[in-house]
Design brief:
Layout: E1 5-7, E2 15-17, H1 29-45, E3 48-53, H2 60-70, H3 74-79, E4 83-86, H4 88-97, H5 103-115, E5 121-126
Parallel strand pairs: 3-4, 3-5
Antiparallel strand pairs: 1-2
């Protein structure tokens, strides 16, 4: 995977290499969705598994509505399991509180299972200040 360039979907960022991490500060739901929706759209269109762990500002249904508006045929991606939207409280309760001995391992195991289903890669968005 090294050296391969991916379309980020975020105009100001442009193309990115595998393993790229970036941080986006936002004030409103709209600020967040302006970045995250095109980011996931590019990932879905390029056969990547996408997971959105929502923030306190945005619940699962609002995230889903934004993706339905911004991604053609979004329901197809959702039905085949290429996109998963999880509320921040469910994610952190399930993967951080349930096993304090190694909280990150639990979440990564789930993601590795998804990638093993022949996706080209992973896109993840989460608000780490929600926990």
């Amino acid at each position: 995977m090294e050296g391969r360039v991916r379309i980020s979907g975020v105009e100001t960022i442009g193309n990115i290499s595998w393993g790229t991490h970036f941080c986006q500060f936002y004030k409103t739901k709209e600020d967040l969705m302006d970045v995250v929706v095109p980011y996931f759209k590019a990932g879905l269109e390029n056969d990547e598994f996408c997971m959105w762990v929502t923030s306190q500002l945005l619940d699962v249904e609002e995230a889903k509505e934004a993706l339905v508006k911004g991604v053609p045929d979004f329901d197809v991606y959702l039905q085949r399991g290429q996109m998963e939207i999880i509320s921040y409280d469910n994610w952190y309760a399930r993967y951080y509180i349930s096993d304090s001995s190694n909280p990150i391992r639990n979440g990564l195991e789930k993601l590795n299972q998804k990638i093993a289903k022949d996706y080209d890669g992973l896109r993840l968005s989460g608000d780490f200040f929600s926990c």
